[in-house]
Amino acid sequence: MAFDLSSVSKSTGIGAPRILVYGTAGVGKTTFAAQAPNPVFIQTEDGAGTLEINSFPVVSTFEEFMQCLAALYNEHHYDSVVVDSLDHLEPLIWKRVCADNSVENIEKLGYGKGYVMALDYWREAMAALNGLRDQKSMAIILIAHHQIRKHSDPELEQIDRYEIKLHQKASGLVQESVDAVLFAKHKVSTKTEQLGFGNTRTRGISTGQRVLATIETPAFLAKNRYGMPAEIPLSWADFMQAINPSKEEKKNGTT
Prior knowledge:
Elements: E1 18-23, H1 29-34, E2 39-43, H2 62-74, E3 80-84, H3 86-101, H4 113-136, E4 139-153, E5 156-164, H5 168-177, E6 180-196, E7 199-213, E8 223-224, E9 231-233, H6 236-243, H7 247-252
Parallel strand pairs: 1-4, 1-6, 2-3, 3-4
Antiparallel strand pairs: 4-5, 6-7, 6-8, 7-9
Helix pairs in contact: 2-4, 3-4, 4-5
């Protein structure tokens, strides 16, 4: 295909959301995803609890996971697909890599080689999910748990921070493939107490609110390509409002 000025076209704006939500256990990640329009879940773990959701049977192999995506691509009546969770999908990918190479453990491939091989299957999965978004206009919601990992920043001392519970190579690939990485957490306020003799103590107090952090800080990983506020309530309605602000909100600069 030859490219010239006649091949230039105007983008259509914001498409169906393609997001990853991770955070602490019980914060409400699955509940948030269940609020998306007409969702269907692909479960790699039985994490829905008492929620009533439309879901494939819990998958136990990477092949079954891809079969679910193929089934949605061929025929479906859903508007959103939820993968719950990525960190339980990862062992299925490792298992596939081990089978390909006739080893019992991915570490036996040596020097991180197995984790590099696993990226091919991550790319296959993300390409299929992108196909559902681009060809079928489905919203893509990926759920993951968190882990606390040492983080080095040239401008800061080494600190602990919340990150996605995936191998770093896989985490990087998935982050590049989505439009937002959102950290679900309980909102905490701080209170400074006087201890006497000029000494003080600051402690965190839970507000009871659950929120989505959308911009990276030293404490946690996050990003978004939508220009969202740094923090929004943990609800699908608030998320959609944040990525599609009204003309009046744009005018007033409230988003």
